[in-house]
Write a structure and sequence with these properties.
Elements (H helix, E strand, L loop, with lengths): L2 H15 L4 H12 L4 H6 L3 H34 L6 H4 L1 H24 L15 H43 L4 H26 L11
Helix pairs in contact: 1-2, 4-6, 4-7, 6-7, 6-8, 7-8
Length: about 210
Amino acid sequence: FGLAQVVQLAAVLRCATVNCGPYQWVAVMSSYCFDESWSCAFSSIPPFMFAGLGVALALGLSVIGAAWGIFLTGSSIMGAAIKAPRIRSKNLVSIIFCEAVAIYGVIMAIIMANKMQGSEEFAVPAEPKGWQAQVVTAGYCLFAVGLSVGFSNLFCGVCVGITGSGCALADAQKPDMFVKMLVIEIFGSALGLFGVIVGIIQANAGQFPEHKLQ
């Protein structure tokens, strides 16, 4: 328990005494513990970084989910098609469903990137106001959109891939199972669409200011 911790504790006690607001708490903590606490380092990240991470998560996790699903479904189709070549054509529907997951991520990444506007460089203030508050809010909002869309599409891709794999194997053994399994696959594919719909609604709140507000 060194001098740095003593100074930090004194600043926290002082802020508690004068009833600091939430942004002032962040300012006080980040002024003394940015090199010792992950929470302090997290609070000092610029909102543009959060927005960029949101775009990366929306696109990256969606592509991972699509690739994972295609890997699972494609390997099963190729293996089962050795004994039942007739399944090769109609089971490509499963591959299309997996690819749609990546398309969802691309669409959302484009929407999110178009919302990002240039602004003056600034350090995260203790109490954002005006255009700075709008920039901070937009950055956090787009980061949340990236998490929502990215994880929704990731799990959607895995779901469709596993279901499509089972569909190919079942179709190879019993052809009348294809339609039944395809219905289940359609419901699994809808999970990613739910994430896209909610992400678009969320993204409407993340609007960067086009001009500096006073």
